[in-house]
Amino acid sequence: MENLLEVKDLKTYFYTEDGVVPAVDGVDFELKPGQTLGIVGESGCGKSVTSLSILRLVPNPPGRIVEGEILFEGKDLVQATESEMQHIRGNDIAMIFQEPMTSLNPVFTIGKQIMEAIMLHQNLDKNAAREKCIEMLKLVGIPRAEQAIDEYPHQFSGGMRQRAMIAMALSCNPKLLIADEPTTALDVTIQAQIIELMKDLKDKLNTAIILITHDLGVVAEMCEHVIVMYAGKVVEEADILELYTDPKHPYTVGLMKSKPSLDDNRDRLEVIPGAVPNPLDMPEGCTFHPRCPHAMDICREKQPHLINNEEGRKVRCWLYEKEGEVK
Amino acid sequence: MATVTSNNINSDNRARSSKVESPWKVMLKRLRRNKLAIVGLVVLIIMAVAAIFAPFLTDFGRDETNLARSNAAPDAEYRLGADSLGRDIYTRLLYGARISLTVGFVATGLRIFIGVVLGGVAGYYGKTVDNIIMRIADIVSCLPFLPMAITFVAIRGPSIYNVMLVLAILGWPGIARIVRAEILSLREREFMEAATALGISDFKKITSHLIPNTMASIIVSATTGIADAILTESTLSFLGLGVAPPTPTWGNMLTDANNQFVLQHRWWQWVPPGLVIFIAVLSLNLLGDGLRDALDPRLKQ
Amino acid sequence: MGKYILRRLLQQIPIMLGVSILVFSIIQLAPGDPLASYMQNPNMTIAQMEALKEAYGLNASPVQQYFSYMKNALKGEFGYSIQLKQPVSKLIAERLGATFFIAFGSLLISILIAIPVGVISATKQYSFIDYAGTIFALAGISIPIFFFAILMKKWFAIDLRWFPLSGFVSPGKNYVGINMIKDILNHSFLPLIVLGLAGAGSLMRYTRSSMLEVIRQDYVRTARAKGLKERVVIYKHALRNALIPVITLLGFTLPGLFSGAITTEIMFSLPGMGRLQYNAVLHRDYPIMMGTNLFLAIFTLIGNLLADISYAAVDPRIRLD
């Protein structure tokens, strides 16, 4: 099957007064229509910037895509004009954000904000857009949609706002939905509802989804394929089952271990020691080596490559690569 | 990430935090990079030095008249010409700087003192005390500024002290609101609970914890406050209600110049004082802007 | 909405009372006798003097004087001018028009300049327009209004002779209709420009910083992610939010606006409340000083109230409270 999206060697850097921050530093991945891809990593690993780069929404200045290609249906979005991007945003690719509390404009009604996208991309008049909007609000499970459409965001709870965001994002039947930590800011019970809703909608609408999260549980529920990012780079890529049963990269292993589970009886969770490196002062060699339990001499000196070690498995680690050997 | 229970992380964070610079250092670093603010600061320092050493920078006495040379145009003797009484305008600008800058600094100092005390008390004690002080602040900020200042000075008599007093009395609510708001947000934070747990008294808490934390906003507000004070002083003096002649201020030097003949034919009697006020106030505003940007974490990215 | 306005209106009453007490007390601080000018008249007898004192209510205690003043003020009577020998209310009423015209005309000019320039400055941060606008705004804030007025008079009235030097109408011409309007606009052009440009500075800076903050908000990113044109994102989604604090500021600038109007009236000899007040100060005419200050404070309160109402109109989060 033809790829819907191909990201090739994407580099998005931030030029701050303290130096250049390579937020995304050579990321590759691809996505087929209807597929769900998870991007996992700690905060600051570049997963959000990757998603913003796809829509070309990285604030500039200070951020800039310095290298790479983003092929959406064969068209390079990095080179696209602003008006071409405006046609794609909200229409072919839609996005929902982490903070439902601040992602909706407080001075416009929910309906107005959703109808705006519908009228823009689907050439519907006001009445038809309103019908469609109510239909979408019902679809995402907002009660009394006919009244809710005329309410303001502050009259909605966090979960309801995220439902409204989802309704807005899906209102133009996008081919790709990027969900950036859609459940992080919500209560646990609401999180489960939103995940259920997204799974449900995915089956109904067959939209491809990129789900960005630090929550491995959410990934397990929704995704077919997973990318693990660390310090602006992809460190591991695998199908969901393989990743769970057989994580390769020591960072992925650490992430798995630090996830609480009802099945085991450990007193305390294991953690990955240390913190995400300062992006202005990246360690030499493998960026993970200061925190890695298996760090070897070579890890401190040379960067490992993202190698294809088995069918569909990619990992960036010296444990799986011999020096001098090219992938 | 899931709950963190390891000690490793704490020790690691501590090691990292040693690299973090103090907020003041960061501020100075950022301020140094703002060229306009530095220009403002340099101009202000030059003006202050000129004011302090005025007698050494001129051969004339402050009020020395020479009627034979009244209204003289600038020449070798009178570098910036002479006024209608034959006084050297350059000399009077130097001495005028003393008054104008003093009024600006003292009035603002007084205003900050009142504002910090009242705002601090209101913010810390809350409830009735807060209510009373803030209602008074509301009332004072509703007073029309210049009309009230004119009224006050007219009743108490034009003098440098009354000008400073009225600036402070009418100006404190702004500072009080800043201090109160900062204290309200600060006292909710954890380190205040820690201070309570350690048995530190209320007064000590305010002076040693809260006031330093509000310093940044106060400094910014003070810088632009001095600018406003200098503007108001010059306006009052220009209107004949501020500092009375023969004591020169930049404002009252312009009083005589406000007629058609002088405007048309004797630029040296009105351009220099007006320009000096403008430059002084502009410099203060540039510095204030620079300080605000340097202290504003939102501009950090 | 109605309830909200009513509540805000009721909240202004104690503030108004406080203002009146404060102004009254300051005027009471005046040394000497308000009737001193009468005493210089050698034909005044002591009995006449006492009668005058009684008529002006000066024999009562300050507290009684305050209450009788306020009782009369509620009926629209603000006492008699000592110097001009006319009711203060009449003197003020005659001059309100000019002051309002100057204050609100210049406010309109400020808004029309400041908001577009502020928005462009923020969206094109560090561009030429941003720098030029910022310098212009700083200059507007830093120049004393009286000196700015002097400059404008020098250039446009004395050198170029495009506009009259002072006054509100051409003396002795008694224009009517369209000619009168033309005459007034011709006279008030310089004062309006002086005050309008000076006021645009702070408003522009405020619009710029408010806009800078708003364009970093998540909902602006959402608007862009929808595929809206940048123009719609800025002028519809961002500006509507950025104006909320600007409107509050407009309310707070009203006292400053009247201060500026007063300086301008004095500089251009316009028949407004500012000049009335200034002359009253020069002649120690306390009833006028009391009246003008009180009136200007009332306008300030009305301005704050208007700001509150427009605030509620643009921010839906206010309405429910």
From TrEMBL, chain A:
A Pfam short name = ABC_tran
The protein's UniProt keywords, in alphabetical order, are: ATP-binding, Cell membrane, Membrane, Nucleotide-binding, Transport
Q: Which residues form the ABC transporter domain?
A: 5-256
Q: Which residues cross the membrane?
A: none
Q: Which membrane topology term applies here?
A: Peripheral membrane protein
User: What does the UniProt entry say about where the protein is found?
Assistant: Cell membrane
Family matches, as InterPro entries:
AAA+_ATPase (IPR003593), ABC_Ni/Peptide_Import (IPR050388), ABC_transporter-like_ATP-bd (IPR003439), ABC_transporter-like_CS (IPR017871), Oligopep_ABC_C (IPR013563), P-loop_NTPase (IPR027417)
Q: Which GO terms describe its cellular component?
A: plasma membrane
Where does the protein principally reside? Answer: membrane
**Which GO-annotated molecular functions does the record name?**
ATP binding; ATP hydrolysis activity
Q: Which GO terms describe its biological process?
A: peptide transport
Asked if the keyword ATP-binding belongs to this entry, the reply reads yes
Could you tell me which NCBIfam families the record lists for this protein? oligo_HPY
The record's similarity note reads:
Belongs to the ABC transporter superfamily.
The name this protein carries in UniProt is ABC transporter ATP-binding protein
Q: Which organism is it from?
A: Paratissierella segnis
Automatic annotation (TrEMBL), chain B:
Presence of keyword Transmembrane: yes
One Gene Ontology cellular component term attached to this UniProt record is: plasma membrane
Membrane topology per the record?
Multi-pass membrane protein
Where, subcellularly, is it found?
Cell membrane
Please give the coiled-coil regions recorded for this protein.
none
Record domain ABC transmembrane type-1: where: 97-288
* Pfam families membership: BPD_transp_1, OppC_N
Question: Per the annotation, which location comes first and is thus the protein's main one?
Answer: membrane
Q: Which UniProt keywords apply?
A: Cell membrane, Membrane, Transmembrane, Transmembrane helix, Transport
> Which InterPro entries does this entry report, sorted A to Z?
BP-dependent_transpt_permease, MetI-like, MetI-like_sf, Oligopeptide_permease_AppC, OppC_N
Q: What stretches pass through the bilayer?
A: 36-57, 99-125, 132-154, 160-179, 210-231, 267-288
Organism domain of life: Bacteria
UniProt-listed CDD domains: TM_PBP2
Q: Name one GO biological process term.
A: transmembrane transport
Similarity comment text for this entry: Belongs to the binding-protein-dependent transport system permease family.
Q: What is this protein called?
A: ABC transporter permease
Native species: Paratissierella segnis
UniProtKB/TrEMBL annotation, chain C:
One GO BP annotation is: transmembrane transport
Q: Where in the cell is it found?
A: Cell membrane
ABC transmembrane type-1 domain location:
96-307
- Keyword ATP-binding: yes or no? no
Q: Which keywords, in A-to-Z order, does the entry hold? A: Cell membrane, Membrane, Transmembrane, Transmembrane helix, Transport
Give the matching Pfam families.
BPD_transp_1 (PF00528), BPD_transp_1_N (PF19300)
Where the protein is mainly located, per its record?
Answer: membrane
> What membrane topology does the annotation report for this chain?
Multi-pass membrane protein
- Membrane spanning residue stretches: 12-30, 96-119, 131-152, 189-207, 242-268, 288-314
For this protein, the record's InterPro entries field holds: BPD_transp_1_N, MetI-like, MetI-like_sf
GO annotations of cellular component type:
plasma membrane
Which family does the record assign? Belongs to the binding-protein-dependent transport system permease family.
By what name is this protein known?
ABC transporter permease
